[in-house]
Amino acid sequence: MFMKNLSIIIAVIALAISGVIFFTRQSVNAEGNKMNNQKTLVVYYSYSGNTEIIAKKIQSQTGADLFKIETVKPYPTGYNEVVEQAKQEKASSYMPELKQKVANLQDYDTVFVGTPIWWYTMAPAVKSFLSENNLSGKTIIPFCTHGGGGCSAAFSDMEKFAPDSKFKKGLVIYEKGNSSTDEEITRWLKSL
Ligand SMILES: Cc1cc2nc3c(=O)[nH]c(=O)nc-3n(C[C@H](O)[C@H](O)[C@H](O)COP(=O)(O)O)c2cc1C
After folding, report:
1. Dist CA 189 CA 85 (whole Å)
2. Is 28 helix (H, G, I), strand (E, B) or coil?
3. Cβ neighbours of residue 57 closer than 8 Å, sequence gap 6 or more
4. Distance of CA 117 from the midpoint of ligand 1 (Å)
5. How many other C-beta atoms are found inside a 10 Å radius of the C-beta of residue 19?
6. What SS3 state is found at 77?
7. pLDDT (tens digit per residue) in 54-71
8. Mind listing the pLDDT tens digit for each residue in 114-166?
9. What single-letter DSSP state applies at residue 49?
10. Separation of CA 134 from chain center
11. Which domains does the chain have, with CATH numbers?
12. What pLDDT is attached to residue 38?
């Protein structure tokens, strides 16, 4: 009798422990899994690789799909030339043609959108992406990398290009981040 009661007690304790482990795992998981059945996409443009590094970190922490925005016509490789071209493109609200479209965009509920800062706002290629895709009803979570000036008007400009989307708090990273960027991303994802 005593042995039987002991086995029941042990079974109950084991169940309780596995329950605690299960629920702890659920709450520790970042944005991607917190959204359970929801599908998440990380979309980014990157000219010199910094935003790509951050996009891949977000992708690996969320388990989301990844999509790189690429222009049909590549930007010049020289720094001064690209800076000058970008200045003119901003002044004329130019939006470059993009190489590919996201397949099945309608399947995604949440879209992380990443951009380098070009002349105090998002890069023109990201404007092209937002203007040629219908993201209404979706949640957009912006992120940017910058060269010291912060993300300036990038996030508020994104909202103008996707007025019917729900925006969440964006992530701002200097260049390609540093040794604590992974933890910063984890904290940010949990806060969303
Ligand atoms: C054309 C151009 C314009 C830029 N304008 C800004 C700016 O206004 N403010 C800023 O802080 N950094 C600016 N930068 C620096 C980039 O935002 C920064 O290096 C960013 O991390 C680059 O990301 P990427 O490597 O993904 O292209 C500019 C860079 C380029 C090439």
Report:
1. 34
2. helix
3. 177, 181, 182, 185
4. 5
5. 10
6. coil
7. 999 999 999 999 999 999
8. 999 999 999 999 999 999 999 999 999 999 999 999 999 999 999 999 999 99
9. S
10. 17
11. 31-191 (3.40.50.360)
12. 84
Asked if 95 contacts 123 with a C-beta cutoff of 8 angstroms, the reply is no
List, as own/partner pairs, every contact residues 174-178 make where C-beta atoms lie below 8 angstroms and the sequence separation is at least 24, other chains included.
174/145, 174/146, 174/147, 174/148, 175/50, 175/145, 175/146, 175/147, 176/49, 176/50, 176/53, 176/54, 176/145, 177/50, 177/53, 177/54, 177/57, 177/145
Kindly give the distance from the C-alpha atom of residue 146 to the centroid of ligand 1, in angstroms, as a whole number.
5
Atom of ligand 1 nearest to the CA of 46: 26
What sign does the CA torsion over 115, 41, 125, 48 have? positive
Q: Which atom of ligand 1 is nearest to the CA of 54?
A: 26
pTM of the predicted protein model: 0.85
Tokens read off for 11: 């079974």
Q: Which residues line ligand 1 (CB under 6 A)?
A: 46-52, 82-83, 86, 116-120, 145-149, 175
**In the structure encoding, which two tokens stand for residue 117, read together?**
């800062």
From 75, 118, 178, the mutation candidate for ligand 1 (largest count of ligand atoms within 8 A of CB) is: 118
**For residues 46-57, average pLDDT:** 98
DSSP string, 94-156: --PPBS---TTGGG-SEEEEEEEEETTEE-HHHHHHHHHS--TTSEEEEEEEESSS--TTHHH
Three-state DSSP at 82 gives: helix
